[in-house]
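[step 3/7] inverse_fold.run input=structure_tokens len=460
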């Protein structure tokens, strides 16, 4: 913010300017209300205090908000549902938080097989609307019942069925985006194939609120998938489960291939018993919807990798119980302590090496690191868990967090497969991308947001 006097006066002036432009229905200056918009789900990120929360009702109000922010040089943090796990929506001091919760328009065009949606809708609401017309919106982050479509777009969210059906960006045909200076871009539309000009919509997907505010998306829908057979396999050792995943991936493409190690299974079973032995080393869950011998191929690969138990079932209720348990894993592990949530990804053949490296780091750093993951995508969430009241344990956990990302990079992988960089992984992003790519990244940012007001102090 440009300083023209003491801090309190500046803050008041900023609030008054937003109130004048947008009114009391849109601009919330009550500190108690603003408090509930400060955090996302990255519990270890310390957010700042916003001067105001803006709750625009339409694109024109988003434009007005950004024009005022640009004029005053005030940082803007765009916020969907605040379920992000990397601090992307965490508020910044002296800024405003722009919530998309009221941008909730929805139209399903069955003839074109698309949904035109406001970013404030929850993922589950889009799925339900599509299902009401016999269609399917596939991207399914484990948080699908609580996260917004805008947040999914801004992080390019993945999920369980993404291994076969693709991630959020694969379903984006069109976007409406408001730039920092208030201009509106309309990118793409309802046309399935369209290569006119740069694919700017892909630039905004995954840009984590640093390049513009997504105010509408045109999403591709498809017919629902066929019924699936669920394969369950347990292993005494997580690395063996990793070998099974690598083997499965070279022969078939299940519609979900999820892994939980023994510690994650134990954390879930404390909340929802699934009937697995207490000493299980790892659990693999696969869903096979291709028919033919797909589920037998998966079962055989698990057995060959040393599974101690393999079973297949077509019972939908049982499948939902197991997949539901997998989706609960992060909140269940969060009951054990403070969690630094990793989101590393590696090439499929490197999966066993990554799992072995994480186990080694946990041992060396004397830190619990339960592991869950969208294994079929090579995307894992080692959950570095510690007691925050113990300074020695905290510094061991922080070292372990860094080392897991370094291990993924050494295996040719990434520091984030789906959660985004946010504030948590900025330092490691630079290690992954290198100086030249960071320079080009900053040039893109500078071209679209020259004053740097959009989600500043994060990774770009
Ligand atoms: C239990 C649990 C399980 C999860 N499982 C998964 C999973 O399987 N896969 C996965 O990908 N993620 C998962 N997540 C993480 C999270 O739910 C996703 O990142 C989700 O996409 C965030 O959506 P949100 O609406 O909560 O976004 P927020 O947290 O509000 O914001 C996330 C980022 O997007 C930006 N943003 C939000 N809306 C807009 C917009 N309209 N325009 C521009 N920028 C915007 C914000 O500035 C921020 O940088 C999980 C989270 C939890 C708590």
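[step 3/7] decode complete -> sequence:
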């Amino acid at each position: 913010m440009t300083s023209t006097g003491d801090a309190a006066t500046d803050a008041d002036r900023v609030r008054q300017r937003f109130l004048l432009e947008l009114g009391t229905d849109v601009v919330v200056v009550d500190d108690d209300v603003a408090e509930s918009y400060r955090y996302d789900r990255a519990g270890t990120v310390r957010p700042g205090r916003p001067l105001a929360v803006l709750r625009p009702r339409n694109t024109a109000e988003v434009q007005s908000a950004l024009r005022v922010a640009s004029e005053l040089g005030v940082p803007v943090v765009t916020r969907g549902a605040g379920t992000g796990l990397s601090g992307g929506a965490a508020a910044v001091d002296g800024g405003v938080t722009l919530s998309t919760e009221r941008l909730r328009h929805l139209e399903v065009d069955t003839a074109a097989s698309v949904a035109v949606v406001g970013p404030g809708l929850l993922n589950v609401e889009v799925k339900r609307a599509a299902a009401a017309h016999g269609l399917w919106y596939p991207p399914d982050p484990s948080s699908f019942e609580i996260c917004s479509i805008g947040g999914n777009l801004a992080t390019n969210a993945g999920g369980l069925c993404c291994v076969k059906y693709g991630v959020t960006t694969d379903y984006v045909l069109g976007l409406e985006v408001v730039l920092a200076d208030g201009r509106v871009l309309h990118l793409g539309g309802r046309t399935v194939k369209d290569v006119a000009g740069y694919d700017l919509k892909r630039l905004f997907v995954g840009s984590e609120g640093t390049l513009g505010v997504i105010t509408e998306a045109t999403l591709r829908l498809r017919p629902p998938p066929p019924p699936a057979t669920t394969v369950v396999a347990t292993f005494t050792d997580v690395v063996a489960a990793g070998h099974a995943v690598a083997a499965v991936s070279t022969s078939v493409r299940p519609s979900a291939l999820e892994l939980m190690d023994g510690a994650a299974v134990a954390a879930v079973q404390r909340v929802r018993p699934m009937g697995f032995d207490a000493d299980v080393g790892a659990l693999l869950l696969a869903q096979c919807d291709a028919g033919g011998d797909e589920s037998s191929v998966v079962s055989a690969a698990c057995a060959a990798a040393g599974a101690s138990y393999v079973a297949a079932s077509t019972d939908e209720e049982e499948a939902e119980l197991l997949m539901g348990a997998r989706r609960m894993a992060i909140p269940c592990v969060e009951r054990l302590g403070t969690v630094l949530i990793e989101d590393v990804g590696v090439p499929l053949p490197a999966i066993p090496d990554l799992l072995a490296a994480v186990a080694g780091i946990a041992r060396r750093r004397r830190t619990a690191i339960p592991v869950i993951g969208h294994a079929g995508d090579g995307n894992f969430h080692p959950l570095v868990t510690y007691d925050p009241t113990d300074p020695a344990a905290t510094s061991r956990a922080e070292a372990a967090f860094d080392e897991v990302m370094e291990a993924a990079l050494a295996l040719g992988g990434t520091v984030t497969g789906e959660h985004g960089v946010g504030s948590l992984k900025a330092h490691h992003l630079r290690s992954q991308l290198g100086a030249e790519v960071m320079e080009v990244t900053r040039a893109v940012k500078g071209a679209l947001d020259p004053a740097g007001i959009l989600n500043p102090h994060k990774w770009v």
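[step 4/7] annotate
The radius of gyration is 22 Å.
The first strand starts at residue 27 and ends at 28.
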